[in-house]
């Protein structure tokens, strides 16, 4: 796929149609890009692989250290899975719900993450963790930094499937102004290097039905955690 860098999309999320997913790369930070439609060619492999992962490690709603139940349901695959409970945020080798190791990262997931990182200028990305987030309408993710990883050298690769979302991409303080970036089925956001610790979040998902995934948005967040 050939990518050209364009200025960020400012489409109305509430318009009737999704924009044409012509492959293009939009720069949203010095080392941050949205790769429009980048995951679409791999969907036929991604969706059955996701189903298999979820059979072994079903979605569940986790509790934050502050005692709040997250509106987003989570699962993971890869060597390390991100978890949260009353004792804190961390990565574990075992799924706390089943006691089993997290399911292996499917090859299609790994290939997608590596190719997207490369497209954004990060070579040799070898993720050991894929957090799988499931948003139903109303679910959101508050602004946060990804800081539970052993090093911040590797980028974050974040894949959107299903219902659209409004991604917030901020600065290095929670109070910094945020850009609002509409994300659609198949889009991939990559941020790293000088942008690795930028605050980011997702505004509440609007009601809707996605033709392939129904009433939900699925996000894969790939990281080097260990
Ligand atoms: O759902 C998204 O697009 C972002 C997910 C995220 O920020 C996270 O899992 O840390």
UniProtKB/TrEMBL annotation:
Cofactor note: Binds 1 Fe(2+) ion per subunit.
Stated name of the protein: Alpha-ketoglutarate-dependent dioxygenase AlkB
Alphabetical UniProt keywords: Dioxygenase, DNA damage, DNA repair, Iron, Metal-binding, Methyltransferase, Oxidoreductase, Transferase
Cofactor(s) it depends on: Fe(2+)
EC numbers, comma separated: 1.14.11.33
Coiled-coil spans in chain: none
Pfam families, alphabetized: 2OG-FeII_Oxy_2
Species: Pseudomonas prosekii
Catalytic activity: a methylated nucleobase within DNA + 2-oxoglutarate + O2 = a nucleobase within DNA + formaldehyde + succinate + CO2
Single Gene Ontology BP annotation: methylation
Keyword Transferase: yes
Source taxonomy: Bacteria, Pseudomonadati, Pseudomonadota, Gammaproteobacteria, Pseudomonadales
Fe2OG dioxygenase domain residues: 126-226
The protein's enzyme class: oxidoreductase
Gene Ontology cellular-component annotations: cytoplasm
Family in the record: Belongs to the alkB family.
PANTHER family hit by this protein: ALKYLATED DNA REPAIR PROTEIN ALKB-RELATED, NUCLEIC ACID DIOXYGENASE ALKBH1
């Amino acid at each position: 796929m050939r990518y050209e860098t364009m200025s960020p999309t400012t489409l109305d999320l509430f318009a009737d149609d999704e924009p044409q997913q012509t492959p293009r790369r939009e720069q949203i930070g010095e080392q941050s890009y949205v790769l429009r439609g980048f995951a679409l060619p791999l969907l036929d492999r991604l969706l059955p692989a996701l189903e298999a992962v979820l059979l072994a490690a079903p979605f569940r709603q986790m509790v934050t250290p502050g005692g709040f139940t997250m509106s987003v349901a989570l699962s993971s695959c890869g060597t390390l899975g991100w978890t949260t409970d009353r004792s804190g945020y961390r990565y574990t080798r075992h799924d706390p719900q089943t006691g089993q190791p997290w399911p292996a990262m499917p090859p299609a997931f790994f290939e997608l993450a590596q190719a997207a990182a490369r497209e954004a200028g990060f070579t040799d990305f070898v993720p050991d963790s894929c957090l799988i987030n499931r948003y139903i309408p109303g679910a959101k993710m508050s602004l946060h930094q990804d800081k539970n990883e052993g090093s911040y050298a590797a980028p974050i690769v974040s894949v959107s499937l299903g219902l659209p979302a409004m991604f917030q991409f901020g600065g290095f303080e929670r109070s910094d102004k945020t850009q609002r970036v509409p994300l659609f089925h198949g889009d991939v956001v990559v941020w790293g290097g000088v942008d690795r610790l930028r605050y980011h979040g997702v505004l509440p998902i609007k009601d809707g039905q996605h033709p392939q995934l129904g009433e939900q948005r699925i996000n894969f967040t790939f990281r080097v955690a260990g």
